[in-house]
């Protein structure tokens, strides 16, 4: 997930291949929430990952593909002093049995046993996904099998994790706040 390869592709760090797709600028803001208030959480490690424009995940052995050892569309960054990080990536496709989503983890102190960890998923509005998946590259995968309302994981609070997308050129941008309650 790097911006160094141009606005419509994502670099595969394991072998420098390019994963084409609709550009997506994903900004995550991570505030620390406590009984006394809310402040930016600097130094948190944020790890997003998702499939490519054909529904293929990296570093996975699947009946349809084997990408073990490949590292594309996954990575991590550490939040800055404002509790923010940014990934330049592509809009994901769908995978069998799921609606379109991005996995993520936030670790408050990855080197320590005492750190906090949050694992969840981010989702996309079905209407926007329909527009993106009508484009030639994504259409190769075929009609998606699930919309948000049919996905069991989305039904368990996914509407609160919908990314507010704005169109930017040929792609999209979004900023999402992931508040962590820390005691």
- Major sheet: arrangement of strands: 8-3-12-11
Count of alpha and pi helical runs: 2
Q: Secondary-structure element sequence?
A: EEEEEEEEEEHHEEE
Please give the CATH class. Mainly Beta
The CATH superfamily name is Aromatic compound dioxygenase
Strand content of the residues, in percent?
25-35%
**Chain-averaged pLDDT:** 89
CATH architecture descriptor text: Sandwich
Distance between the termini: 32 Å
Please give a structural write-up.
This protein is mainly β. The chain has a single domain (3-178), classed as Protocatechuate 3,4-Dioxygenase, subunit A (Sandwich), CATH 2.60.130.10. The chain has two helices and 13 strands, in the order ββββββββββααβββ. The chain has helices at residues 126-133, 136-139; strands at 9-11, 18-20, 23-29, 31-34, 37-40, 45-49, 77-78, 84-90, 101-107, 117-123, 166-168, 171-177, 180-181. The strands form four sheets. The chain has a four-stranded mixed β-sheet, with no helix packed on it. It has a four-stranded antiparallel β-sheet with strand order 7-6-9-10, with no helix packed on it. β1 (9-11) and β2 (18-20) form a beta hairpin. The longest helix has 8 residues, at 126-133. The protein is globular. 30% of the residues are buried.
């Amino acid at each position: 997930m790097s911006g160094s390869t141009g606005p419509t592709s994502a670099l595969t760090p394991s072998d420098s291949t390019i994963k084409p797709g609709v550009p997506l600028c994903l900004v995550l803001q991570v505030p620390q929430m406590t009984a006394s208030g809310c402040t930016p959480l600097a130094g948190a490690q944020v790890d997003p990952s998702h499939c490519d424009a054909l529904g293929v995940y990296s570093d996975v052995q699947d009946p349809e593909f084997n990408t073990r050892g490949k590292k594309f569309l996954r990575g991590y960054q550490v939040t800055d002093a404002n509790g923010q990080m940014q990934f330049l990536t592509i809009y994901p496709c769908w995978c069998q049995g799921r609606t379109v989503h991005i996995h993520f983890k936030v670790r408050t102190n990855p080197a320590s046993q005492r750190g906090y960890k949050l694992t969840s998923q981010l989702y996309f509005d079905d209407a926007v996904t329909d527009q993106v998946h009508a484009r030639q590259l994504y259409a190769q995968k075929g009609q998606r099998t699930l919309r948000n309302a049919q996905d069991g994981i989305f039904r368990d609070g996914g509407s609160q994790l919908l990314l507010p997308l704005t169109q930017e050129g040929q792609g999209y941008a979004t900023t999402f706040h992931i508040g962590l309650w820390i005691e």
